[in-house]
Amino acid sequence: MDAQIDSLNQTARDDYGPMTRNVLEFGARFKRLVNQSRQPGFKLEDWAPLAELVATDDFVRVGCFKEVVDWDQYIGLIHQWAPGLTNWDCTMKHVTEVHGRVFLELEERATTGADTDVVNSMSVYEFNAAGKLVHLDIYLQRAMDQGAIKGWDV
Predict the structure, then answer these.
(1) Rounded distance, CA 97 to CA 105, Å?
(2) Is 148 within a domain?
(3) d(C-alpha 72, C-alpha 47), whole Å
(4) CA distance 39 to 85
(5) CB atoms near residue 45 (< 10 Å)
(6) What sections of the chain are H helices per DSSP?
(7) 139/36 Cα distance (integer angstroms)
(8) In what order do the strands lie in the sheet with 68-69?
(9) Quick check: is 153 in a domain?
(10) Tens of pLDDT along 21-36?
């Protein structure tokens, strides 16, 4: 499936399970807030629309370097990262809802000035019984740097 997260209409979202709809809503809010974060006066508290979807006291995010952060640390990291972007966008490749988890595969594009970083990401979202996000795992793939030796012969 090749669709922009923020452009999925409500009819398409209704075709997904409840946890997937929560993930799509989280993604749409995330994108909107990343864009708003570049505006003067955007504060840490302005990320609150994301918190509405999260069990903030129980939340754990494990990043691509196995770093573990709680909700406040996660929002702090995003708050520092997002304003430096010229643009952030993504294309959904696949989404699967199974056994209390949603597996979301994206191509993400983060632009800073003239440079665009393109990564394939797999995010695993886990929800509590109330439908709030409690755990988020992030996995990334990116192209090798131009100067890196390519291949498995290294």
Answers:
(1) 12
(2) no
(3) 11
(4) 12
(5) 9
(6) 10-14, 18-36, 48-51, 71-81
(7) 25
(8) 68-69, 60-62, 133-142, 115-127, 101-112, 87-98
(9) no
(10) 999 999 999 999 999 9
